[in-house]
Design goal:
The structure is a homodimer. Chain A has twelve helices and 14 strands. The first copy, chain A, is α+β, with helices and mostly antiparallel strands.
């Protein structure tokens, strides 16, 4: 391929890109279901709408990145979890609209093609897709000399899912007295990393292999914990009509995210003393002297997902709610109001 | 919002992000059709599958970026065309699978929130969506301190479309004697910018406002010309069953892209002397002394899209093909072969 020579001198290596592409193909095909038509390498990716279409179905989509959690991956030279983070994050987002994931697509921008890094990223994405039962339908890896520092990259993901009409009852169903259930997070998930990095590395002068006193674990492991996917726990409850509304607690925290699902006739009152603040957040408070209100606006503070449920459904819910790695905590109630989220700190 | 103070000190300005968000909402809603359920600001975006679903429909998706054409936008401080480029590029990609666009989502990564830049980018995206009749269903603007240089950003887009089963006949329909029609490009589109920048700025020491001798126009205008969308020309021909296959000529050029649509029983022979090389490409050849073969591998060389059509359909096609800004040129034929693309230079 000598014709590609001058292009490579200008900073783009088409041969290396081609090599990475063929290895990617295997990872990608491993996530395909019978719904995927066509193959890796087409101009677009075709997904059969058989049994998905019609007026009773909605296609629900969301797009996001991983934010500056990527900087931890760069520091740790550990690139096979951020893709999984991205998929799980987006699964949780579309779950708030009652959707089950059907396919995912990724964009990776990097300064210089590095096959090993790209394959690690896609490995994490493929694992996330398998965990959540969706196809990795396609993606783009863009070599952009002069945009990203050596060994660095940005990733974005696009998730498509299908929601059955009426799986969630709509905001009108929310009533004073409804309970707000919180589901525990696995750590920071993918939010607040700019502040967390400032606390640990700039103020605390910590190294990735240092032990965090409040958790007893290595900083590296805490900061790279994979964003938890709530799909397997929550979606079956939605199908049983036990969930009135759901919010993924990401940037903006409780206030920024729960306010999106309230009607203008109710307020959500969150009793933050109903659960223990995980050590990793305590550690950030200690190091960066962040006020508790700001902590709750930037971080999930131990609760990664909340659902609003009817008081009368609690006995039925109880049966389904004592399984797995995820703790379920009644974190608050709805009361008559105007759509506000009120955090009570004791 | 004093609780956001410390987070801002760490480099993330939630207030400015919120302000940009509310101005974005207006641009986004301007692209909505009756198919969009929900509103800007939800966790995901819902799109009704009414009249789209069933076993006769495929959802076709593609993801891409604009590549280093963005550097031209940075140099020119001109941010309202790259979004349009991105949409048109992806429209052309899914058109190769016979799909019409239904919705688009964007990801913008930038180092520091700059409302004006983000709004310009989204303005271009919204214009692209309107041109191609698709909804701008959602997007993510990620503020990532330390990832991008001051005033720089990366953008990625996700396009979803619907293809009717059988709108294209499949590779088996390709026969020796079929014609390859080329559709003229508006310029570089979004490929080869790393090499083009090297030629014009590094070797040629040109400024954006210099006149390109081969075109008689300003370099700025040539390099920022919007990627042409072939949807309005090609899709009606697909519905009339006049198109056997289609390829978008992007990175990889004729060989890299036409080879994706050939069957293993035919070769595509392209007669590059059937059309004139546009001045902008001649200028790159002169400055960077790039060989013609490499030029055809990196750039579209004046033909942005090709279709394969049956010889007998030419009389019917002729009626539809003399309209608009886009020139249609018979660029080659299929002959018995093994799936190769052969470029003839006279």
């Amino acid at each position: 391929m000598k014709e590609a020579k001058r292009y490579r001198e200008a900073g783009v290596d088409l041969e290396s890109a081609d090599r990475a592409k063929s290895r990617l193909g295997e990872l990608v095909r491993g996530t395909f279901s019978g719904k995927v038509a066509g193959d890796f390498g087409d101009f677009g990716s075709a997904f059969s709408l058989k049994s998905y279409g019609g007026k009773e179905k909605y296609l629900v989509s969301s797009v996001d990145g991983v934010g500056t959690k990527l900087k931890i991956a760069f520091m740790a030279s550990h690139h096979d979890t951020v893709g999984h983070d991205l998929v799980n994050h987006l699964v949780n987002d579309i779950l708030c609209l009652g959707a089950r994931p059907i396919f995912f697509m990724d964009y990776i921008g990097l300064g210089k093609m590095n096959e090993d890094i790209v394959l690690d990223i896609v490995k994490g994405i493929a694992e996330g897709c398998k965990e959540n039962g969706c196809a990795l339908l396609g993606g783009e890896t863009a070599e952009m000399p002069g945009f990203y520092s050596e060994g660095e990259y940005d990733i974005a993901g696009f998730m498509a899912g299908i929601a059955d009409k009426g799986i969630l009852p709509g905001k009108g169903a929310l009533k004073p007295g409804d309970l707000i259930l919180g589901f525990s997070s696995s750590g920071l998930h993918t939010n607040g990393y700019t502040l967390a990095r400032k606390a640990f590395f700039e103020i605390g002068k910590m190294k990735l292999d240092d032990i965090v006193p409040e958790t007893g674990t290595r900083l590296r492991d805490e900061l790279l914990k994979i964003h938890f996917s709530y799909f397997d726990i929550i979606y079956p409850l939605m199908k049983k009509k036990l969930i009135k509304a759901a919010a993924h607690i990401t940037g903006g925290g409780f206030e920024g995210n729960i306010s999106r699902i309230l009607s203008p006739r109710v307020d959500a009152v969150i009793n933050t003393y109903h659960w223990f603040t995980p050590g990793i957040f305590k550690s950030i408070i200690r190091l960066a002297k962040v006020g508790v209100e700001e902590m709750y606006r930037v971080f999930n503070m131990g609760i990664g997902f909340v659902t609003i449920v009817g008081e009368n459904d609690i006995p039925r819910l109880r049966k389904y709610l004592d399984a797995g790695d995820c703790e379920v905590i009644p974190v608050g109630v709805l009361r008559k109001g105007t759509g506000k989220v009120i955090l009570q700190y004791e």
